[in-house]
Amino acid sequence: MAGPLKSRKFIVALAVLLVFSSGVYAVISAQKRAAEMRCSNNLKMIGLALANYNDTFWYFPAAHAAGHSWRIRCIPYMWASPQFDAYDFDIPWDSQNNITVHTRPLPGKTGNLVVYGHPYGPPCDHDDPDSTSYVLLVGKNAFADGENGRNAADITDGLANTIAAVEIADSLIHWLSPNDLDIDTMSFKINDGPNSISSHHPTGPAVLFCDGAVFRMNPETPPDIVRAMCTIDGGENVSRDFLISQGYLKP
Known about the structure:
Layout: H1 2-57, H2 70-73, H3 83-86, H4 96-99, E1 106-107, E2 113-114, E3 134-138, E4 163-167, E5 181-182, E6 206-209, E7 214-217, H5 223-230, H6 240-245, E8 249-250
Parallel strand pairs: 3-5
Antiparallel strand pairs: 1-2, 3-4, 4-6, 6-7, 7-8
């Protein structure tokens, strides 16, 4: 009887282990999906801010006009916060007054002092409360042209076919830094380090199109197609619908 009894105990133990492993895997998978969702929602929020800015001024914000980032300029078009009013555009972005707008208490609607924190959310891949994973594409033929605001009419490839902002992995870019991703020097291979569109999320990095739509980009997307999506006036015959049908973009 000892043999069958041991076999039954082994089978029960194995079944328990499999159930436990499945539960752990399900929890980890759910956590990964939740992180991806938060990241995509952050980009959607940025897209809304860019659209609201454009509705106000009839052009999108410059990436780093006068040495100050689009991220601080977009705050009033994204959420109600006193950070924009507390920021001084007459002094450097990393001066003591400016660099602390998310860490020091500022007056709220009721007059009480509140620490509002980093409005764009810290990176998903490392614990740095000051840095950001979200950057604009900048350059002469990119969504943002450094010092100058871009008009929607300049994006002749179409708002739905042109990427405005992207996720990058392992970023050490401070959220107030006038630093983004230059298409003239970046790698167009997905997940090719912090100088590329990149992410540690399993389904690939999130990208924001100029019309506000957010997709996940397949890491196997060919570099020439990535480049076509990054330029505003290349004239490439690559539509977003085609990219979705080929599996390069996932909602």
